[in-house]
Amino acid sequence: SKMTPEREAAYHAGLRRSLEAGRAVLADGGAALDAVTAAVMALEDEPLFNAGRGAVYTSAGKQEMDAAIMDGRDRAAGAIAGICGPRNPILAARAVMEHSGHVFLIGDSALKFCRERGLAFEEASYFYTDARWNALQETLAMRNSGSEDQDESRKHGTVGAVARDRNGHLAAATSTGGMTAKAPGRVGDSPVIGAGTWADNATCAVSGTGHGEIFIRYAAGHEIASLMRYAGKSLEEASRAVVMDMLAPAGGSGGIIAVDHTGAVSLPFNCSGMYRGYVRGDNVLRTAIYDEPMVEFREG
Ligand code: SD4
Question: Where, by residue number, does substrate bind (predicted)?
Fold first, then answer.
């Protein structure tokens, strides 16, 4: 799965659609929570990204999706893990937050809850893509021959969004299929509050992508917020300290996107690339792709 120019353009277009979905909510005076929901839904709907449609496969050839959302106003949070069925896993996480009285639901009972809430469901064929299926076969073949899979595209592709609205409220959302050929039942960092997803108006909102086990062990999202809160670091200092100085040496390849209570943005990664972008209220849309310098677009 080499990155062809066509594929790169498609990633770029998907990212822009997501940014536009989030921007439209905020420009309308909407809440950060609704903006991150819309931005992540747009990426789940794209077959290219490893979330919703196009999620990766477990070693048993199933898709098991994880997602979480957090509201920085009161640290309300919702998460689901190990599900396949709801068209938009992020809506399942949000339903858990708003309607279950709990924070985290998993597996078949989570699906039952989603059905009762009336969420849209899809068949397995909707979520299927040749690219992810072939990636599974390649990873399994490599595993059988005892060689290590060096292709990061088979481990990455998680989607996330963070936002600050005009009232200063923060929110974060993350959705993923996890890692190609993961063990059945394995849950990564994305739905773990404080690891792959975190939001608190007092500090920042964070969404992570990368080697989930390490992100969980270092409580990546909460660690960034704590460095701001208790060590007086800026968002950029705190997020780089965690991504570059803690996660990377521990084997935690990946990155995070974050916004703080002042509106500062930080998007560091320690792997070969991470599609990421941001929109500001000043109508300037900036996106960055891979290791390229920031590409800037001016919108209408
Ligand atoms: C996980 N962090 O399940 C996710 C994987 C990932 O892009 O980020 N993929 O560990």
Answer: 186-189, 209-212
Can you give the pLDDT at residue 156? 75
> Which among 49, 63, 175, 211 is the best mutation to test ligand 1's pocket, defined by most ligand atoms within 8 Å of the CB?
211
* Strand 104-106 with 76-83, pairing: parallel
Q: How far apart are CA 291 and CA 288, in angstroms?
A: 8
CA geometry: angle 17, 191, 232, nearest 5 deg: 90
Ligand 1 centre to CA of 178 (Å) is 5
C-alpha 238: how far from chain center: 19
pTM score > 0.90 for this model? yes
CB burial of residue 67 (10 Å; 0-12, 13-18, 19+): buried
ipTM higher than 0.85?
yes
Q: Please name the amino acid found at residue 228.
A: M
**Ligand 1 contact via 190 beta carbon (within 6 Å):** yes
209 is in an annotated binding site: yes
- Which of 189, 218, 243, 276 has the most ligand 1 atoms within 8 A of CB, as the residue to mutate? 189
Question: Is 189 part of any known ligand binding site?
Answer: yes
How far, in Å, from the CA of 152 to the mean position of ligand 1? 11
Q: How does pLDDT run across 34-79, given as a tens digit for each residue?
A: 999 999 999 999 999 999 999 999 999 999 999 999 999 999 999 9
Beta strands in the chain (DSSP E): 65-71, 76-83, 104-106, 159-164, 170-176, 197-199, 204-210, 254-260, 265-266, 276-279, 284-288, 295-298
What tokens appear for 86 in the block?
Answer: 């709801």
Would strands 104-106 and 159-164 be described as parallel, antiparallel, or unpaired? unpaired
Kindly list the distances between the CA atom of residue 152 and the CA atoms of 87, 157, 272, 288, in Å, as whole numbers in the listed order.
26, 9, 8, 18
In whole angstroms, give the CA distance from residue 4 to residue 166.
39
